[in-house]
Design brief:
Helix content: 25-40%
Number of strands: 12
Order of helices and strands: EHEHEEHEHHEHEEHEHEHEEH
Oligomer: single chain
CATH topology of the largest domain: Rossmann fold
Number of helices: 10
CATH architecture of the largest domain: 3-Layer(aba) Sandwich
Strand content: 15-25%
CATH class of the largest domain: Alpha Beta
Structural class: alpha/beta
Shape: elongated
């Protein structure tokens, strides 16, 4: 087949994507090239690539790819792509939004159970052969507030509702969702904060969400409420959160994402009582590439047939 578009799979694990392309019957419609993440595309690869699958790109690369029409990010977050000073304005950028749906909701529920149930403390008691009666706090009847009711937030809401929790939240385009106690616009964030026993952050990193959770908003929360961040580290003002936990403005926080990862050993999050540091376990999945490959192949089929792609990034809103 002549004039086949060339795909550059710029990843250390191209096998899942190649297999998915073959299984979808698209292998004869494209030319596939692969490249390890530690390498940079050659001059020939830059000239020939039509579709790029990658975690990101350094400045100067994308403008040097004259035939590049579409880039598929391996991640849901695209702040690195959008921060490029030379991101081609005509390039279609799609993200892996929604591909954490199989892993992140369970890990978020795990964090809720960790807060409410005393198993971790009981394990420590066992090391001392200490029989200490502890009381587990029910999640049933508590209110979970979700800031960012996208695909992940809606799945968390479904699972939390099954546990008997009341779920409310915000999304950019508010509309009623099944089983939720309320879906509000971002302007009503304070209402969600005031009513929630647990506040889950699933917000993207944009100019509008930088330091979104600051001292003022933390004061809107209940003193016994917990904050959970599985979205982006930039959403929280670190200094304000540490102060709020130390002053008991809120009960504590579970953090899975940070401004700098790995979190530097000198960061006070490590040593602040009431702050639980997770090493970004929310999204990873043992079959992560297989899951992303499903989305990529669906988009590839659409691209080859001239149809609109899924999960196209809006550069104005930042995701």
């Amino acid at each position: 087949m002549q004039n086949r578009p060339t795909l550059l799979l710029w990843t250390d694990s191209p096998g899942s994507y190649i297999d998915a392309i073959r299984e979808a019957g698209l292998a004869d419609r494209v030319a596939i090239d692969t490249l390890a993440r530690a390498q940079l595309p050659s001059e020939a690869q830059r000239a020939s690539t039509t579709v790029l699958l990658a975690a990101g790109a350094p400045p100067g690369l994308l403008p040097a790819m004259p035939n590049l029409a579409w880039a598929q990010s391996l991640t849901a977050g695209v702040e690195g792509w959008l921060a490029l000073p030379d991101l081609p304005p005509g390039l279609t950028l799609t993200c892996a939004r929604g591909t954490h749906r199989e892993s992140m909701p369970e890990n978020i529920l795990g964090a809720l159970f960790h807060i409410a149930k005393p198993y971790a403390a009981i394990v420590e008691d066992q090391k001392q052969r200490l029989w200490r009666q502890r009381i587990a706090i029910p999640l049933n009847g508590r209110t979970l507030g979700i800031l960012g009711l996208g695909a992940i937030g809606q799945e968390v809401a479904r699972l939390a509702t099954a546990l008997g929790m009341r779920v409310i939240g915000t999304r950019r385009r508010p509309a009623p969702l099944p089983g939720l106690g309320g879906v509000l616009a971002p302007e009503a964030t304070d209402t969600v904060l005031a009513q929630s026993d647990y506040v889950l952050l699933l917000l993207p990193a944009t100019r509008a969400t930088e330091n979104f959770i600051n001292a003022e908003r933390l004061r809107r929360m209940k003193p016994e409420a917990w904050l959970l961040n599985f979205g982006r580290g930039q959403v929280i003002d670190d200094v304000d959160l540490i102060a709020a936990v130390k002053d008991r403005t809120i009960a504590g926080a579970v953090l899975d994402v940070f401004r700098q990862e790995p979190l530097p050993p000198e960061h006070p999050f490590w040593t602040t009582d009431g702050i639980i540091v997770l090493p970004h376990i929310g999204g990873p999945h043992p079959d992560r590439d297989r899951i992303v490959a499903r989305l990529f192949v669906e988009n590839l089929s659409r691209f080859l047939d001239g149809k609109p792609l899924k999960e196209v990034v809006d550069g104005v809103v930042g995701y």
